[in-house]
Give the backbone structure.
Amino acid sequence: MDKEQEDRFFSSKMLACPPRGHWTSFRLVDEQGDGKPYGGLRYTVVDSVGQEYSGRLNGEGFAKLENHYRGPLVLTLNDAYGGVDGVYRALLKRKHYPLPITELQVRAEQTRFFHEDGFRREHNPAIKDADVFIQVEVRDLVRHGAHLPPVVKRFYEPQSSLLRAMSELGIGPEHPFGIALSPNQHNVLEVRPLRALRPLLSTDDQFCALNLYQLALMATLSYTDFGQDPAKRPVDRVRFAEDPSVGHLFGEALAGFRENWRIDKGQRQRFYPLYEDVPYSKRLEILPFDPTLYASNHPDQGEDQEHPANQHFFDDQEDGGDTQAFICHHDEVILIAVRGTASLKDAIRDVDALQVPFEEGVGKVHKGFYDAFRAIQDFVLRYLDRFHAGQKVIICGHSLGGAIALLLAEALRRFPGDDYNILLYTYGAPRTGDADFVQGAAELVHHRMVNNNDPVPGVPARWMDANWKVWVPGLTMTVLSGYGLLVFGAGLVRVGGAPYEHHGQQQHFMPVRFGDRETSALLWDPTCESIEHAACTRILQQWRGDMPVRGNLLAQMIDYQDHMMVASYIPFAWATLRRWQQTQENSRTVVTGHEYYLIDNALATLKAKLYEHIRQMRYDEGPRGPTAAEKAAMSAMFKERDRLEQTRERLQTLHYRRLTLADVYGNAAQSAEFAGSVARWAKHTENQQSEQYASLPPLLDSERRLAAQPLDINSII
């Protein structure tokens, strides 16, 4: 209609019914200009006097209305999904937060972006047949859209002002949703595909380089906030604009098909996860917030109001603690990441090393870690009770978070009435339980990462002089880092009780120098404990008399960065993934001859120093022979000697080992999207290292840290 007619039509003084005899056609297409994905969908159109027209799109996604009243129309496609696909049926029927999934949503999830990065297409071939061309989202056409991704900037905007005007005048649909169609014209609607990105993970128990890298990123993400706005007591909607944050990554970036690399606020290096392109409903879900649909979301619930932040994110600061974790899920995986030490409250838990019974299983565990686990337990169990439907439960954590994650994983494995399938990856975790606990948890699959001279895995003390009485000046020594506080103190050393032991299959990063400014890492599983104790021995010095050896104490802390995720664990995990990828590309073994020579010599030197220490202990024996403590220490050292031999044998095996695709990627290599995921990751400049064995990504000078030797023998014993 022309402007004069439009003005008369929207005049509040006009009471006459507008004439009929008008027509409107429309077509839904994907980003390739194809209407077939939307063929057969049922639609509803309402004209300017409220007359409703229903029908189905033809096989090409086309429909035409004849003889409707003058003026614009409003198109909606709100029919609920009625198919038999198990994933969609489960989401529709689940007890908590059932999703209003429509047929339109399911169709849009089967389409693909024209551009691989999800950037909107500017010139769709269907434009040539259109009088009016509009780029729409599924949420524009359905009643409830809180579970759908945020709208992405478009080149061809819908006529939202016309839709608002019709709503204000009381004409058109009862609810203000839908797309306004221009009458007497052919309208083409390009529907944005509903695809999302999710971190590619292997659900196989076997260790793989993919999970090593991916879960290092997820464990680091646990240090960020959830990032919800408003954080508490939302009224009608929530946003996740803060980047990096847990909510932003899963609720906005990946839901909107954007590859995020920032997982730490101070991070400047780009570490991209490997993402797989999946239908939107198979993403790692952040629950919707819609008070009109879910009574639990309504502000009237007061303190009991549910919203994404308190469903996915745990932080007990208001209860006097400072344990933090996040949890989310998709149809195959429930992911739990637990934060490490980041505050003084965490530090107090770190040093509370009294052994207490592990009531959920057997043995005794570190009291501080156990208190933190008990704080988080109900939060996790409630989420699993609502959303666990047979998925693999993958848990990860760094430092203190690794200790909490271990207790959580073992408690879930033993939880009565549920058969949780648990996979655990930890980074720089301290010892958490005694020998009985470790033996009782033997069936728990746990891959435990230790980086070079990271001091934290060496505490609480276990062998050699297990009854050290270490007093650090001021009781606690803290080292400021990018994550907060790394704490060592008297409480970390066992006094009485059974020895603490490590749980899980160790994977040790050993730095290797390529040149003056190039460093990489060799990942392997040494049987001996000496390597792991190197940094602990440097920091917690054996003393004579009542005082510790104070000389050069701060200088001994130079390796504290080995405990940091962004500075150390993530770069070494990245280098391992690239190294293992390149063994596949070049059909070569993991360990070069040069690396084998360096490490084997280091182990031989370590064995010699161990013998020297044993001889010295025998020389220092009193006239009555060794004390009970000296006998225990001697026995431990002889066991360590045997483990050193086993370690050298493992190194030799590793030298000749050729990796399989499963070693690198686990069962993720069987995913239909696997090849595309790897290709997408490889396109980033940061991941295009072409050497046989990847060195670490170049660091800024302010971030640079190079290891002086592949193994610091002088720091051991």
The chain has two domains: 3-193, 199-294+316-590+657-715.
